[in-house]
Design brief:
171 residues
Length: 171
């Protein structure tokens, strides 16, 4: 059998990442309760589930949370929660500001980036409750819907687009 140059395999190699996503290489992160705001310097606990293909809870992962605001970063490791696929992480945001939290699932490159969460100075008045539409956007992201669906009103790109487009729909 004649040897073939390695570069002839390049087109086939380009198909491996999408095939990995389709055959088990992605997970959906679902946050149980997203705070509308937090107090800077005080611990906040996030509970979340990691599900392969959005269905099967995944155990044995080592998820982490990374929070960013300006040039500041805070990180925390998650521990297994009360049941399979559930995880808990507690972190403190060091100063007031608008913080973006990303949960790295511990399964490949699967992650969830929440919409920004304000951190206020301890002892100050809590901000007004979010408008219904803003709370809906926050929940759409936190519940992992962007992992399968497009909804342009949210303003974020999702991962796999395997579910129906939900732009303009109200639930």
């Amino acid at each position: 059998m004649p040897k073939r140059p390695w570069f002839l395999l390049a087109p086939a190699l380009l198909l491996l990442p999408p095939a990995g996503a389709f055959f088990g290489g992605w997970a959906i992160v679902t946050v149980e309760q997203v705070p509308e705001y937090v107090a800077a310097g005080e611990p906040v606990t996030l509970r979340f589930v990691v599900r392969q293909h959005g269905v099967e809870p995944m155990k044995g992962l080592r998820p982490t949370i990374e929070a960013r605001a300006g040039g500041k970063t805070a990180r925390a490791a998650a521990e297994p929660g009360r049941s399979t696929g559930h995880y808990v992480a507690t972190l403190s945001l060091p100063e007031p500001g608008s913080w973006t939290l990303t949960i790295h699932s511990g399964f490949g490159t699967s992650q969830l980036t929440l919409l920004p969460i304000p951190a206020i100075r301890p002892g100050t008045t809590a901000p007004s409750a979010l408008a219904e539409s803003e709370r809906g956007k926050q929940l759409f992201v936190a519940k992992g819907c962007l992992g399968c669906h497009v909804r342009n009103e949210v303003g974020l790109a999702g991962g796999e687009t395997i579910g129906p487009e939900l732009t303009g729909k109200r639930y």
